[in-house]
Design a protein that fits this description.
- This protein is an all-alpha fold and 462 residues long.
Length: 462
């Protein structure tokens, strides 16, 4: 019956040429390039904001609250753009069929790009709703959701059109994107009760990264490794299924310890701690995959530097530090301190950011020969990004430990505690500057690579 329905209403899509990127895959190029551009912008804002914490009288064109809101929103939006482009690319790569309409992928990018730029401009002018990570005014939230739904619609029609219901990787990606839109929906409208409002906010702030988008990210990562022939395709598909089961089982509850702090019963701390222990399992599976890939003969592809960086920060930031912070005896003293900030930097950028950078770099460079000078500069940028993140995270961990001691043991008030933390926060700003240097170098290198492509293609067509 299903096959009859598919044949009646959907003509099967065109097959992909294995030696060239298809129109749908080429439509993902702007998504990939935007990742590097927005990362550089976010690094600039973050470095300025970290300096403002230490030197509050420092003259800045944008108010600290506005810059912080832009930084937090970018930390979600550019990885989202990158993972959307990567999903399009690898779905076509492994199913061998075009998506429903490549034009919609292109127009969807420009629509989302304009929406994000207007959103950032609005935040820079101080127009915010005051909800952390969700500061954007109502019209921009609706606009983002509309762009997201058009992307999901394109995937859904492609699944039916190309008979992809039996491809688990495609279904898991679609499920992740659909779940992300459903989690975003309750946050369109503000709720007066602070506990209910924060509960809805956590659906995006935590469950996007620990649930819906992690489904997409781990699937994309597995297919990326299979494309490089670092991991056999059968093993990659098994890893996708195990990751999906474990993420869905633990991700929804692993962030439950946060709920205690917004007014819900204390047993949520215990649930969050138990789920955080389970959440370490998919991280271990990813680590084992990375270790096995060390014996592969295809380690010369430079995009793998981003993958190994992602695995390292996933183990350290998400697995180890995240589990420790969720333990109820420790959570009571460190929740909301700079230790939480260290965890969020290592988890959101360290794991998710590096992964998106790696897939985006692979997409833009896969079909082209790269010079030795280009590879050296990209390697240097990865070293700077990791070094800057290590300095930032290390200083934030020290700051958080000292902050907990000064508040809970020494009994100092917030203002006196903050003044004593200045040397450590200055070190954090220095780490941000190193990180920013790596981000700007990488963005510059990718734009130069893009212009070389444009010139090369223009000469070919003449």
């Amino acid at each position: 019956m299903l096959e009859f329905f598919l044949k009646l209403f959907f003509k099967k899509g065109n097959k992909k040429d294995k030696d060239h990127d298809s129109p749908s895959q080429k439509a993902s190029y702007p998504y990939a390039l935007s990742v590097f551009t927005f990362l550089a912008l976010q690094s600039f804002l973050a470095t300025g904001g970290s300096l403002h914490l230490v030197f509050p009288d420092l003259p800045t064109p944008i108010a600290f609250t506005s810059g912080r809101a832009m930084h937090l929103n970018l930390s979600l939006l550019w990885p989202l753009l990158g993972i959307m482009g990567s999903a399009c690319y690898f779905i076509v790569e492994f199913t061998g069929n075009e998506l429903y309409t490549p034009k919609l992928i292109k127009w969807n990018f420009w629509y989302l790009l304009i929406t994000i730029l207007l959103l950032l401009a609005s935040l820079a002018l101080g127009h915010t709703e005051g909800r952390e990570y969700l500061e954007a005014p109502f019209p921009f939230k609706v606009a983002l959701l509309v762009g997201f739904l058009f992307f999901i619609l394109n995937l859904l029609i492609s699944i039916f059109k190309n008979r992809l219901l039996y491809h688990p990787e495609t279904i898991i990606m679609f499920s992740g994107f659909l779940l992300a839109s459903l989690l975003y929906l309750p946050n369109l409208f503000p709720v007066l009760h602070p506990t209910v409002d924060d509960t809805f906010r956590f659906l995006v702030v935590h469950l996007w990264e620990e649930g819906s988008l992690e489904l997409v990210a781990t699937t994309v990562a597995s297919l990326w490794l299979a494309t490089l022939k670092v991991v056999p395709l059968n093993r990659a598909k098994r890893l996708i299924l195990w990751e999906a089961i474990l993420v869905l089982f633990s991700g929804a509850l692993a962030s439950a310890h946060h709920l205690y702090w917004i007014g819900l019963p204390r047993f949520w701390q215990l649930i969050g701690a138990a789920a955080s222990a389970i959440q370490v399992i998919p991280i271990v599976l990813l680590g084992i995959t990375a270790f096995r890939s060390l014996y592969s003969s295809n380690l010369n592809h430079i995009s793998l530097y981003f993958f190994y960086s992602s695995v390292f920060w996933n183990i350290v930031g998400v697995g180890l530090l995240g589990f420790l912070l969720a333990l109820p005896p420790l959570n009571f003293y460190v929740h909301g301190t700079y230790l939480t900030s260290a965890h969020s930097h290592m988890a959101l950028f360290g794991f998710f950011g590096f992964l998106v950078l790696g897939t985006s770099y692979f997409i833009l460079t896969r079909r082209y020969s790269l010079s030795a000078a280009h590879k050296k500069r990209v390697k240097l940028s990865v070293i700077l990004l990791n070094s800057g993140l290590a300095i930032m995270s290390g200083s934030l961990i020290l700051t958080g430990l000292l902050q907990s001691y000064l508040c809970y043991v020494a009994g100092l008030n917030f203002t006196r505690t903050h003044l004593l933390l200045h040397p450590y926060l200055l070190l954090r700003a220095a780490g941000g500057a190193v990180f920013g240097a790596g981000a700007f170098l990488l963005a510059l290198e990718m734009w130069l690579h893009f212009f070389r492509l444009v010139i090369f293609q223009t000469l070919q067509h003449r």
